[in-house]
Amino acid sequence: MQWLSKALSKGPELKADILDAGTELKGSILQWKMHEGKRKDNGTAVTVFSWEMTATTSEDDFAAAKNALKRLRTARHPHVLQYIDGAEPPEGAKTGKVYIVTEHVKPLDDWLIKEKSSSGSGEAISWGLCCIARAMHFVNHDCKLVHGNLCIASVLVSDCGDWKLGGFELVSEPGSVYGLVRTCNQLRPKRVMPPEVSRGQWDTLEQAPHGLDTWSYGCLVHEVFHGVLTKTEDLKDTSKMPKELVPLYQKTLKAAVAQRPTGLQILESPYFDTQLVWINKELAELALKDAGQKEAFFLKLADSMDQLPDLHLRYKVLPELLKAVEFGGAGTAAVAPMLKIGQRLTAEEFGKEIVPGVVRCFGSQDRATRIGLLQNLHTFAEHLTPALVEKDIFPQLQSGFTDAVPALRELSAKSLVYLVPKLSEKVINSQVLRAISQLQQDPEGSIRCNTTICLGKISANLSQATRDKVLLASFTRAVQDPFPPARIAALMSLAVTMEYYSAQDIARRLLPAAGLLALDAEKEVRSHAVSCLKGAVARLEEEATKKGDEFAIAGGTAVVQAPTVSESGVLSWAASAAATTLTKQLWGGAGGTGSAAAGAAGAAGA
């Protein structure tokens, strides 16, 4: 591609680099080429339109190309193609190129081929036609101009799915006898030309200049649903259009010019009463809403996202959600839809687009935001790298262990199940275990309960030396907790971590601790204690059979050599099935903190 870079570098100095040889913009009234480009200042992707003037180029063509650059340069509207830079041949030149650098877009034709059959395409097309109606109103009403070239080739689609009005070659003031619209009329696609123009009756447009663009808008609607027009008679076919759109479509093709609706009147059609149109309207006004209004919007957004196109959610909705989460003002309502969009992304996309915002949010002083993140941690924890967790997230999370709000302390404890596997042994031993020790003495019984559950779940991530030092000491202390669910959690944890204990520790420390609870005042505690004791006895029987005569009795004390622990899996001993069943009742299976919380809450209620 060296030859391409060299050839393109001979052009004018633009704010963007042109990256390819370009492709023809099909259906355009001039032979424009579309190039992939990249901004020089920030590397953002852009589109570069180029049109070449040769010695045989007509004056009308050159005038139209220069007009496109001139008009687009001064047009500023959300639904008009965003101008970035441009250049044209110097005065008097016989050859050269006109360049227009815009936001990154693709032709509507290409977009329809790819997206028309996808889910959410109906919403996307409705929003797109709404965009063009708004742009048409801007050109006709606000700018007092006639576009004159509204067709499928003059509509481009941005990365987020917004339709943008381009093709400004013939834009003119109505007072100049339509300027280029009239003098360059031969350039207009005949298939979208209104009947009065075909007959040369330009005077009929004097009282309703918008009528020319409205007719073209109707032709655009037809081509979106039925394909490119081949003859005027095809405009009668509405078989593939949504029923709600047909009345509006028929009005745009009224024979009487004055009866054709303006861009603003087009927007009054019930066809535009869709979720995506509503969402975009709300997003445009989001900065003006108070916290309550923002929260209500985000809650409704979460319920309606399944029917919305992926690109729109990713490039338009997601940035607004990230800002709302990071800077507050919407409570936890923005977290759920943000992470729901994240589920549609690849791991690489999630890491690039969502994780940086999530990391910043962990440092938020807004408790509601942090609670929302912790409640949804299980949906994005897999995308967090160990370096990110240890350096950026865990330090921010630590304040939650001692927060004055019990809910935040509890969620912080539960989050360790997802974060500890990504932390180094040094951090686990020096910071995590210290936090767990403090939380096991928390005034709130449910927090003590869930902390014990958490310790049981992360036991596989501890070194054997740390397990020997911490697990039995913590769980045997927890069996004495005055809160019944906390005692149950301790018994369950003892059961699922029994593979890590030596036969000596089971006999000398676990059996006495669990034995006391076999006579507990709470029936459920007694039941779990008995199950734990059965598992412990089964383990001792297994060891006794295996050791045989290796056991030696000295002074009435059994001297037991610590067994070699198999690393092939958890609960390889006889009572594994029973312990696993009991674990699921309280923990909801290995790895799920949500069920653990529910179990603890239910037990607390009992």
Outline of the structure:
The protein is of the alpha+beta class and 606 residues long. It has 26 helices and 11 strands. The strands form 3 sheets. Strands 1, 2, 3, 4, 5 and 6 form a 6-stranded antiparallel beta sheet that branches.
Describe this structure in words.
With 606 residues, the protein is of the alpha+beta class. The longest helix has 25 residues. Strands 1, 2, 3, 4, 5 and 6 form a six-stranded antiparallel β-sheet that branches. Strands 7-8-9 form a three-stranded antiparallel β-sheet. Strands 10-11 form a two-stranded antiparallel ribbon. It is elongated, with a radius of gyration of 35 Å. The N terminus and C terminus are likely disordered.
What is the count of β-strands?
Answer: 11
Largest β sheet strand count, sense and barrel closure? 6 strands, antiparallel
Q: Rough shape?
A: elongated
Radius of gyration: 35 Å
Secondary structure: helix percent: 40-55%
| Count of DSSP H/I helices | 26
What gap, in angstroms, lies between the N and C termini? 73 Å
Mean pLDDT across all residues, rounded?
84
**Structural class of the helices, strands and pairings?**
alpha+beta
State the low-pLDDT regions, or none.
Answer: 1-6, 552-587, 589-606
Strand content: 5-15%
